[in-house]
Fold this sequence. Notes:
Number of helices: 6
Strand order of the largest sheet: 2-1-5-3-4
Helix content: 10-25%
Oligomer: single chain
Strand content: 5-15%
Radius of gyration: 19 Å
Bound molecules: iron/sulfur cluster, FE2/S2 (inorganic) cluster
Structural class: alpha+beta
Distance between the termini: 47 Å
Largest sheet: 5 strands, mixed
Amino acid sequence: MGFMTIDRIRVEFTDEPNVLSVIRKADIDIPTLCYHSELSIYGACRLCTVENERGKTFASCSEPPRDGMVIYTMKYRKMILELLLAAHCRDCTTCIKSGECHLQELAHRMGVTHVGYENTKTQYPIDMSSPAIVRDPNKCILCGDCVRMCDNVQSVNAIDFAYRGTEALVTPAFNKNIAETDCVNCGQCRAVCPTGAIRRSLGGSSGKGGSRRLFWYGAGRERDGEDCKCAPSYGI
Ligand code: SF4
Ligand code: SF4
Ligand code: FES
């Protein structure tokens, strides 16, 4: 147990695993894109960045709370969101996730109406090889949620990070199509993806894709933002 000072408010903590949990316990709204309590902590999106009394910034999701900590939560968040949007393709109005995209919802909530940075990222082909999911790397913000879901929870490890810096990419090994991997089409990566970078394949009306489509609709999951929740062995 200890006490932290968050935005000049004294807050007690007990067994909270990270500073982010203490901030939320104090009813301070901190949006996150890569923090899921059921997945390992990756600290990729930086949206949860806070500042200490010496001006040092850090991701609150990956910092344990310490007695006497003093932090401020208000700065930088809008700029970080703009930087995430800058490297993201701009076809939001025609994206199937429009209206259900967590990134878009945050942009609206934080009043980001214009992105003043050019998108200089390499453009990649869209992977439509799977009957369950469509991968569009041009909408990926590299949060790693899909990688951790596929590895930590589903134990399949069909996708991972490749390359570094501005070339960083989430992809199957050797840039293969997802259909050429051990992917079991469980759709769990899509369930956690906060953008349209992994979305549900609507497939065709027959064949494997059609079966998948019938499954999604049969399960009453008409909206892309909803979750299928099947185990890896559940090869539909
Ligand atoms: S559909 Fe399932 S197995 Fe395939 S990449 Fe996504 S989480 Fe991994
Ligand atoms: S595909 Fe989606 S979940 Fe995976 S890293 Fe990119 S934005 Fe995150
Ligand atoms: S939620 Fe902390 S870095 Fe993404």
